[in-house]
Specification:
4-stranded antiparallel beta sheet; 180 residues; Immunoglobulin-like; 0% helix; mainly beta; 6-stranded mixed beta sheet; elongated; single chain; 16 strands
């Protein structure tokens, strides 16, 4: 019986691996995209790949499939079929491919005795934001960051890193240019 379809999202240009979690040894995994076989591993042989994934994918022994340099056309419904020596199993995935990540924009303003930084990026998925300051070892998981002005050195830089799926982009700003 087919289980629920897992919705997964990748980004154009990234290497995307389907999140396959199988605990037992599997035999003869077959991947299909929209009902067409794209990769299969028959007993004793090496994996075989078919268009459109020929030369840009790898099938692992645990059944997981990685597609290199993801393209918009890779979007679709994928199914992994495998045998565990007792019966056939099926895993369904709906892959959506989003445009590549934009570079984040950093804006800054001052108020009273604080410097406020804001990081924005227009993207159709929900991003995770991280700030790194050149004079501090730890990072801050937030879209906005406020820093006491007394901690802003003349050489301090702030970097905003956005992440989605397995891809990240970053931008950097010199804090001195934010000061009035």
């Amino acid at each position: 019986a087919h289980v629920d379809c897992m919705y997964v999202v990748g980004i154009v240009g990234e290497n995307f691996t389907f999140p396959v979690q199988i605990d037992q040894k599997i035999v003869e995994p077959v991947w299909k995209k929209n009902k067409d076989i794209v990769a299969e591993w028959e007993e004793q042989n090496k994996p075989t790949y078919f268009d459109p994934l020929r030369n840009r994918s790898v099938l692992m022994e645990n059944g997981s499939l990685t597609i290199f340099n993801l393209e918009k056309d890779d979007a679709g419904t994928y199914m992994l079929q495998y045998w565990d020596s007792v019966k056939d199993h099926y895993l369904d995935f709906k892959l959506d491919v989003l445009d590549s990540l934009p570079e984040p924009n950093i804006s800054c303003s001052t108020s009273d005795d604080e410097l406020l930084l804001n990081c924005t990026a227009s993207f159709q998925g929900s991003l995770s934001y991280t700030w790194k300051l050149s004079n501090k070892p730890h990072s801050y998981q937030n879209q906005e960051l406020s820093i006491p002005l007394k901690h802003v050195g003349t050489t301090t830089k702030a970097t905003c890193i956005i992440k989605f799926s397995q891809t990240g982009r970053s931008s950097e700003i010199s804090l001195i240019q934010c000061l009035p």
